[in-house]
Amino acid sequence: MIDSLVDAGMNDLISDLQALIRQPSVSAKKVGLVECANLVAKMMQKAGINSEVLYLDDKTVPPIVYGEVKSKANPAAKTLLFYNHYDVQPEEPLELWEDEPFSGTVRDNKVFGRGSADDKGELVTRIKAVEYFLKETGNVPCNIKFIVEGEEEVGSVHVEQYLKKYKEKLACDGVIWEFGYVDAKDRPILSLGMKGLLYVELIATGPSRDAHSSLAVLIENPAWRLVSALKTMRDEKSGRVTIKDWYKEVKPFTKQELAVISKEPFDEGEFRSEYGIKRFVAGARGRDAKKALVGMPTCNIAGFDSGYIGEGAKTVLPAKARVKIDFRLVPGMVPEKQLARLKKHLKDHGFSDIEVNFIHGEAAARTSIYDPFVKKVDEAAREAFGSSILSVSSAGTGPMYSFVKVLKAPCISIGSTYMFARIHSPNEFARIDLLNKCTKCMVRIIEKFAA
Ligand SMILES: [Zn+2]
Fold first, then answer.
1. Distance (Å, rounded) from C-alpha 123 to C-alpha 51?
2. Fold (CATH) for 2-194+366-450
3. CATH for 196-250+297-362, among 3.40.50.1450, 3.30.70.360, 3.30.428.10, 3.30.230.10?
4. Distance, CA 237 to ligand 1 centroid (Å)?
5. Distance 75 CA to ligand 1 centre (A)
6. I need a surface site. Which of 109, 117, 304, 382 has the fewest CB within 10 A?
7. Digit-coded pLDDT (tens) for 300-356
């Protein structure tokens, strides 16, 4: 049975993970990326996976690692694609690490280090699942491919270009997403989607330079101007965006989706105390709070900047006011279309003087809960972890839509990352017991996907 190979191979898995951690690969600083890509390619070869390091025409863009194993018994079988990333977040602040950030220290059932969970731990479970399959049976029951990118932590800026350039190579029938959380009760969360994002900057301009504030009787203050414009964009009571047609393409949840949402565990009280808040937006509770998390668009002020905020008083009328806003989007919403609606809204409300700068746009994606792929992955997760939680969508954003659009394949997020594994923070770790269960889960996904 492959499970016993997984158990016997845990030391090997850990040493591969340590090797990956010890090769820093910080995309924000462009450190060690090509080296790490080459290391991943080598690791795949060692596991029996054919690998290649692929580039775009612009060779300064970090490469992707492509991996492939064809099923010998059934070359016409379906193809499963694993999407991961080899880049990591910066290691700072250094003083808060108990070990060296890139040490891969093993202690108390944990492997510590930047990238141990996000995403190198996830990557090794998938490589090892394929390796043990090949070791045990000399074959894989379906075709397997890998795409491992190097810019996930900086917004996957080129992943769509890669998908388009290597569309034939990457063609597949289902995608296992790069990460998956495991909750405090050791239940893996199968997430079927991600929200989209529209990120903009609005600038209001006042006098040609900062003015004495006594002149506020005559000169319009751009900070007020911006505040007034912002007030027209969102209803404070309901939290709803009040821009015309903002929700036009948003479909309500189906009965079955609502049933899934109802079953999803969510400790409201703990959540509120964790963040030190007394109530949720619009006073949402119970299922409404969960519905908001998986399916509510937002208009969030991410930053506001104007005038004097130093010590004491400075009576000034600022020349400029600037706000950064992120709108979370849900399936059906097209970032470019929403941007046009925002611009029209400002114009219609007499704010055509406010400059709108587009910063980033990404559409949402969601795999249907009826897709047969969901049932297979869910069964695999239950067998390997003992239980599972199905989630209609994650509240966060990722490049899932690019995969759905270019490869036209359903995507499911499932993995080994403990909820409190301190990803993106000092002392990030991967739990060894979860790496073990997740590898067994991946083995089962490969088996069931082929069936
Ligand atoms: Zn990350």
1. 14
2. Aminopeptidase (3.40.630)
3. 3.30.70.360
4. 33
5. 34
6. 109
7. 999 999 999 999 999 999 999 999 999 999 999 999 999 999 999 999 999 999 999
